[in-house]
Amino acid sequence: MKRIVVVGGGFGGFHCVRSLSRRLPAGMAELVVVNPTDYHLYTPLLPHVTGGLVHAPDIAVALSRVPGVRLCQGSAVDADLDERTVTVLGPSGERFKLSWDRLVLAPGSVTRVFDIPGLRENAHGFKTLTEALFLHDRIIANVEQAAITADPADRAALTTFIVVGAGLAGAEFAAMAKRLADAVAPRMRTRWLLLDMAGSVLPQLDRRLSAKATQALIRQGIEVRLKLSVREVRPDSATLTDGTVVPCRMLVWTAGVSASPLVRRLGLPTDRGRLVARSDLSVPGHAHVYALGDAAAVPDLTKPGAVCAQTAQHAMRQGPAVARNIAASLGYGHSAPYRHRDLGMVADLGGMAAVADPLGLALSGPSAKLAASGYHLMALESMGNRLRTATDWMLHALLRTVPISTGLVSGASAGLSAVEQLSIYPPVDRDRTLVA
Questions:
Q1: Which helix (H) or strand (E) holds 345?
Q2: Could you please report the per-residue DSSP string of 64-76?
Q3: Rounded to an integer, what distance in angstroms lies between the CA atom of residue 275 and that of residue 305?
Q4: Taking all residues of the chain, what is their mean pLDDT, rounded to a whole number?
Q5: What is the mean pLDDT of residues 319-325?
Q6: Contact (Cβ atoms closer than 8 angstroms) between residue 159 and residue 191
Q7: Which terminal residue of the chain, N or C, has fewer Cβ atoms less than 10 Å from its own Cβ?
Q8: What are phi and psi of 60, to 5 degrees?
Q9: Distance, first Cα to last Cα, the chain
Q10: What is the 3-state secondary structure (H, E, C) of 287-303?
Q11: Whole-angstrom Cα distance, residue 164 to residue 230?
Q12: Separation between Cα atoms, residue 320 and residue 46, nearest integer Å
């Protein structure tokens, strides 16, 4: 029996292994997915989790529920492509190796962190479920603490929130988080700053839709400051690149992503940090090794000379394409290059504010909100996820919820320093090596 190891349970890895389980005959191959968590996460709805609109489990799928798939929980920290093994760092600190006959590299990306004083120690990322849940609680806790704080300076710092990065994640997070803070204490004024070194919000959109998104954020009370970032981050303040010092107890960093550090360890050719792959998603010079998603530079056949953008849309479609080509290598079907034209982008900015350009059609307001909601429901991985998410939205619209902070996630596990430690793969505590 052949063993197919898929590194990563994100959009690319999840859709690859699920498609393989359907394409290959039962007993033809053993499917193993290596992932730090036991679930696949629909990350585009993380702002809804932070905003309290959607329950966290409703946008996750247990990897063990995919038919015929064996979950290997841990982080892939190395791979020997000649010996055909992958080294995994398990949750308890043990290392073990997995042999493979076909290898799919879809380790995704990590938050890109710059060498800004105090950033790693005092800022928080927004890429994982852990971070989304922590930020939900932290916003509530800050606002509630401010309500009983007598010192005006402390109150100002507690009620000021800075979001760095005005792309899709940053803009949606700021909009949803601001509405959460308003729900906690409607009479308390909170200050929200959305910063970006770029010259526009949501630069992936055309200028007109970007301007509409900016106006929607400003109407909600968010200060949009472009061509500006942070120079230094302290526990109670942030210094902006124009020299302004802003009292602040919470700064969220969403300024881009970098390919998984696993890519650097392979010693293979890269393009801007991403593993070079062919149009059929195979890795040059290594038979039966494939790469996709945020960690791979896959040629975009619809834009000669370009590579596919680091989007969920591409990863979701590259997964089945890799599965098709792996099945072909095993004698089932035919291989084909990956080709997908961008279907557009949707951005939910809270309430009825939204912008979207599905298939090039520029939408804003309620029509864009409908397009965004419909897209997310269709893209969710199961009917159960769709029904639960739609129910969450409906109940939130009909019932007035009172946000509460559970305090289940610690700041230490949701800070950028935690991301940095994961990125460099700290030494393991045990010397024991297992071979599977």
A1: none
A2: GGSTTEEEEESEE
A3: 16
A4: 92
A5: 97
A6: yes
A7: N
A8: -120, 150
A9: 14
A10: CCEEECHHHEECECCCC
A11: 8
A12: 24
Q: Alpha carbon of 38 to those of 63, 250, 281, 396, 434: distances in Å?
A: 6, 29, 25, 28, 20
Nearest CA to 173 out of 115, 245, 111, 240 is that of 111
Displacement of CA 52 from its chain's centroid (Å)? 18
Q: What is the pLDDT of residues 115-166, one digit of tens each?
A: 999 999 999 999 999 999 999 999 999 999 999 999 999 999 999 999 999 9
Q: What is the mean pLDDT of residues 94-112?
A: 95
Contact 3, 99 (CB under 8 A): yes
Q: Among residues 415, 421, 424, which one has the least CA distance to residue 127?
A: 415
Q: Are 353 and 372 in contact (CB under 8 A)?
A: no
pTM of the model: 0.92
Helix (H) / strand (E) containing 368: helix 366-379
Distance CA 340, CA 322 (A): 13
Positive or negative CA dihedral for 250, 251, 254, 260? negative
